[in-house]
Specification:
The chain has 298 residues and is an alpha+beta fold. The protein folds into 2 domains: 114 residues, D-amino Acid Aminotransferase, Chain A, domain 1; 159 residues, D-amino Acid Aminotransferase, Chain A, domain 2, CATH 3.20.10.10. 28% of the residues lie in helices and 30% in strands. Strands 8, 9, 10, 11, 12, 13, 14, 15 and 16 form a 9-stranded mixed β-sheet that branches. Strands 1, 2, 3, 4, 5, 6, 7 and 17 form an 8-stranded antiparallel β-sheet that branches. The longest helix has 16 residues. The chain is globular, with a radius of gyration of 19 Å. The relative contact order is 0.14.
């Protein structure tokens, strides 16, 4: 990832319907999204000049806002086109796109009935989340004590900014010990996901993944379902206990940022980057670079 500070760059950001210079895309310190975490966002990728599953990401942005009682004052088509335009204006061909919607500074307090929902879209070059040499042998996960909350305690089906604080705390602890990411359990003790990606395990040629009933059902996760079906592989959504995960033949995580990334170690247990993981990695690359009509917003 780039070492450039994200607030001091050249380029343009789409901000409430107009493009503004990157360094001028600012909000007031009295902002409900900043003080109370009332914001939702997306992570989207562009490959070789085409955005992968743009419409699906925008639909989830609107659904996330709905979960938080926020009304986005633009249409999905306008947001889709703004993503395309942002990439064009910033000359991004292989990169990452970050739409975000937040409650503004029109009112301060827990109640935010009079705030306006603002939207911004930034994009930047970002070819790979993990360095190639680390990704090739599989990243290391550390099990964290932080857990995914129950669905009646947090809006866990939204991609809400406030929900990511436990992920940040967990990942900081793992990185301080030399791990690349974390393994998170849910409030019941079942395997959930990593800090920002869904998890899959392979056992006996069958792919298993946790039931997404208290964490985000990722768009890349759904793509793996499609790829497994196309390849004639069996994929099952099940409850997975931590000891079952450690007995897996292969483990990988999925997300727009991490794509399909193999796991080489969880705590002290080592795993091989196996054939099914490599098959899913290859299939995902083919999908994202195919530029088929259903895979790109044009």
């Amino acid at each position: 990832m780039s070492l450039l500070p994200y607030d001091d760059r050249d380029g343009l950001i789409w901000f409430d319907g107009a493009f503004v210079p990157w360094r001028d895309a600012k909000v007031h310190s009295i902002c409900h999204g900043l003080h109370y975490g009332s914001a939702v966002f997306e992570g989207v990728r562009m490959y070789k000049g085409k955005i992968f599953k743009c419409e699906e990401h925008t639909a989830r942005l609107f659904k996330s806002a709905e979960y938080l009682g926020m009304k986005i004052l633009f249409t999905p088509d306008e947001i889709n086109q703004a993503c395309v335009d942002a990439c064009a204006k910033n000359e991004v061909v292989d990169g990452y796109i970050r739409p975000i919607a937040w409650r503004g500074s029109e009112e301060m307090g827990i109640s935010a009935q009079r705030t306006k929902t603002h939207v911004a879209i930034a994009t930047w070059d970002w070819p790979s989340y993990f360095p190639k040499e680390i990704k090739e042998k599989g990243i290391a996960l550390k099990t964290t004590h932080w857990k995914k909350p129950a669905p009646d305690t947090a809006p866990c089906f939204s991609k809400a900014s406030g929900l990511y604080m436990i992920n940040t705390l967990a990942k900081h602890e793992a990185e301080s010990e030399g791990y690349q990411d974390v393994l998170m359990h849910d409030y019941r003790g079942y395997v959930a996901e990593s800090s920002g990606a869904n998890i899959f395990m392979v056992k006996g040629g069958v792919i298993y993944t946790p039931i997404a009933d208290c964490f985000l059902n990722g768009i890349t996760r759904a793509t793996v379902f499609e790829m497994a079906e196309a390849a004639g592989l069996t994929l099952k959504e099940v409850r997975i206990m931590p000891d079952e995960l450690l007995e897996a033949d292969e483990i990988f995580i999925t997300g727009t940022a991490v794509e399909v990334t193999p796991i080489g170690r969880i705590d002290e247990t080592l795993f091989n980057v196996g054939p099914i993981t490599r098959q899913m990695m290859s299939a995902y690359t083919e999908r994202t670079h195919a530029h088929e009509k259903e895979a790109a917003y044009v």
